[in-house]
Design a protein that fits this description.
β15 and β16 form a beta hairpin. The protein contains 20 helices and 34 strands. With about 725 residues, it is of the alpha+beta class. About 30% of the residues lie in helices and about 25% in strands.
Length: about 725
């Protein structure tokens, strides 16, 4: 007990040092509906104040917990460690294990259990990881996709977080100072199981689990992940500087800018957030100058008072980047430089500018100082929810080598966090999720398929073994993890993934299909519309699609310009579209496109079911919603080749993309699902799952538990939600 509270005191001393070494005027002024000056300006002060008050109140809290704290029954488990390998695929695991290439995973399977982990529907990371955290299905945690539509305007919103602007500002000359703070609210419903652990005094480390932004309070530490923005307020905006004017144009996921070379010097500006402190909200910038040495294929970047030597084809370290907003306020970010080319043309890639974890523009961790602590201890690290720049590779701004280097840099940052936390957590719960396993398979799946359209002009054999290298590298990491816990009989180690992978070679534009079949109508009578439904005649449109997973009916009273009557008319329309879509055949291959089309209301009955699509198509392998349909476009053709590097996917029939589950403890029942993870972890600590959880422990077979599950989850819903 003494040592436990000594560690708490050490944290407070460290926090005090951080606070008094920080510049309180260095705050983030957010873009658009971003972050407020007042809340950012006070973030470290408030953190310190709360810590100080916590010390003062500690004796009272200690006595209170001693008397009233819930206590789980004693079990033979002191610690549970979950290593999350996003997208780790059971078929690849089985293949490489059979070939003897994954000896540590094989050892874990032999000692305990290896099984497929059934995912949820839609089989997407925000949906599946929300089910991991809460033990419920999408209709109960309110996550169906990365995006939600605003039914009034048909425009997209992030599904996981709402960020609203400050309601009042004080105008002083050209400046406008916010009087209050913006609304930043997590839209995932239900509660994560680590909050329940905390109620029983069990401490948790939660590292980069999706849909944890903004961070929720609990008894433990948390570093947020998916949907943490960059300092521009986007989900990741790269910048590409080139002397080749022919390369400049529209770029999904980033900005392309022409720069001029004068002798051996190139100059430009790093593009930061809009300055919401001023009336004009001009874009904040930081200048840079590159001095090129062609003979050595290297350069020196003069940036923010630093001279950064850099060779072609290598990344700089994270460079701390201050954007001056005025009135002594600075916005701090992190950026990396990568020189793509130094020959006939100069080409420079600049990563999305991350929120600096050491000087966080907004809370990205719980407590707020946790990101500061990690950065000071382990070095700067990526904070963006989607760290690996898949769109940079899709747009061919970076190449495969640059993408892989970036991915493994991020992975190494995460490894340092995992092994540090393993040393800290001797009792309690730890989960650390790795993104690279997902990103590499998304971008390199095309090399496992002969003739993939994305490789039409590339060497199909150049990166054919990258996915194998990925699995071997994860096995090596797990060997080190297993060495750390091999003599600890009271630790349960699990490795899991949220889904597996399938080929994605053909894109299906559901909006084009709806136009072709008369369910979507254009104002000009045409067959196409631009992004976000520009040109759609809503007074004649019965159905539409956007995002990656489904179709919405244009229902009167729900949508802003709805025309379909709820009830019998909507039910008949759903059935009609379902039957037609299930018969859809790819004219190029003759293959059926859909395995099934599900009516959401028939498979999900939770309180948020109405927020999901009305129809959920279960695509067969090779097919997925097209890139164009995902942003509300209708194109001339319904089915087209996918020519993006993003060539592996899982947004299809969930039954063919299960994840993996390795456990050092044998499972008591078969067919585990990701919704069962929360109940199983609670069970290991002797805590009964709450009645609302659909998942149940796979470490026990309990008739009363099964009865409770049946009551909470109808058989047909359980079949779909947890396969």
């Amino acid at each position: 007990m003494f040592f436990r509270h000594t560690r708490v005191l050490a944290w407070v001393v460290m926090l005090t040092a951080i606070f008094f070494c920080a510049d309180p005027a260095e705050a983030y002024i957010g873009p658009g509906a971003g972050f407020a000056f007042l809340s950012s300006f006070m973030v470290l002060f408030v953190t310190f104040l709360l810590a100080f008050v916590s010390i003062l109140l500690w004796p009272i809290r200690f006595v209170w917990k001693l008397i009233f704290k819930k206590r789980p029954p004693k079990t033979d488990v002191d610690r549970v460690i979950v290593v999350g390998l996003d997208g780790f695929d059971p078929n690849q695991c089985k293949k490489f294990m059979a070939e003897g290439k994954l000896p540590h995973f094989q050892k874990l399977a032999d000692q305990g259990t290896f099984d497929e982990l059934q995912t949820v529907f839609p089989a997407m990371s925000p949906v599946a990881w929300s089910s991991f955290a809460t033990g419920v299905d999408p209709s109960r945690h309110n996550q169906f996709d990365f995006l939600n539509r605003d039914p009034r305007t048909y425009l997209p919103d992030l599904a996981s977080v709402f960020i609203g602007p400050v309601s009042r500002v004080l105008n002083i000359g050209k400046y406008k100072l916010p009087l209050g703070k913006p609304v930043v609210r997590l839209l995932r419903k239900s509660q994560p199981f680590w909050k329940i652990l905390g109620e029983y005094g069990i401490f948790s480390h939660i590292l980069r689990v999706p849909i944890t932004f903004p961070p929720e309070k609990h008894n433990g530490l948390l570093l947020s992940a998916m949907c943490v923005p960059d300092i521009k307020g986007s989900q990741g905006t790269f910048t590409y500087y080139t002397t080749d004017e022919s390369e400049v144009g529209a770029a999904t996921g980033g900005v392309r800018r022409v720069v001029k070379r004068s002798g051996n010097v190139v100059e430009g500006d790093i593009l930061g957030p809009s300055n919401s402190m001023t009336r004009e909200e001009e874009e904040l910038t930081v200048p840079f100058k590159v001095t090129i040495d062609d003979a050595k294929q290297s350069a020196v970047i003069d940036y923010n008072g630093e001279k950064i030597p850099l060779k072609q084809g290598e990344y700089s370290e994270w460079i701390r980047t201050p954007f001056s907003a005025g009135l002594g306020v600075k916005v701090w970010g992190l950026v990396r430089f990568y020189i793509m080319e130094m020959g006939e043309h100069f080409k420079l890639y600049v990563s999305p500018i991350q929120i600096d974890p050491e000087k966080p523009a907004m809370p990205i961790s719980h407590p707020t100082f946790y990101s500061i602590y990690l950065s000071k201890l382990l070095g700067s690290f990526a904070t963006l929810g989607f760290c690996e720049d898949t769109w940079g590779l899709n747009e061919r701004v970076i190449d495969e080598d640059a993408f892989l280097k970036q991915t493994w840099i991020t992975h190494e940052e995460r490894e340092r966090m995992l092994f540090h936390s393993m040393e800290q957590v001797k009792k309690g719960f730890l989960v650390c999720r790795f993104d690279g396993t997902d990103r590499v398979q998304h971008m390199f799946q095309r090399y496992l398929m002969d003739g993939h359209p994305a490789n039409a002009k590339l060497d199909e054999n150049a990166y054919r073994d990258e996915i194998e290298k990925l699995y071997v590298r994860m096995d090596e990491m797990m060997g080190r993890v297993m060495d750390k816990v091999k003599d600890d009989k009271k630790t349960v180690l699990m490795v899991m993934s949220d889904h597996g992978f399938a080929h994605f070679s053909r894109g299906v534009n559901l909006n084009s299909w709806l136009v072709e079949n008369g369910y979507m109508v254009m104002k000009d009578g045409g067959k196409t519309c631009k992004d976000w439904f520009r040109g759609v005649d809503w007074e004649k449109t019965k159905a539409y699609s956007f995002g990656l997973v489904g179709i919405y009916l244009n229902i009167k009273g729900r949508e802003g310009q709805g025309i379909v009557e709820a009830g019998e008319e909507a039910a008949a329309l759903r059935q009609e579209i379902k039957e037609k879509l299930e018969a859809l055949v790819d004219p190029k291959t003759g293959a059926k496109v859909m395995n099934d089309v599900f009516k959401t209301e028939e498979i999900y009955t939770g309180p948020y079911a109405q927020n999901g699509p009305d129809l959920l198509p279960a695509f067969d392998e090779h097919y997925r919603q097209s890139w164009e349909a995902a942003v509300g476009k209708a194109e001339p053709d319904v089915i087209i080749d996918n020519v993006k590097a993003w060539s592996g996917d899982h947004c299809l029939d969930w039954r063919i993309v299960p994840g993996v589950l390795f456990s050092s403890r044998k499972l008591a029942r078969k067919n585990p699902g990701i919704m069962d993870m929360s109940a199983s972890i609670l069970d290991l600590f002797g805590i009964q799952r709450p009645a609302y959880m659909l998942g149940r422990s796979f470490f026990r077979v309990d008739s009363s538990d099964a009865g409770q599950t049946e009551k909470q989850s109808p058989p047909e819903e359980r079949e779909v939600a947890n396969a």
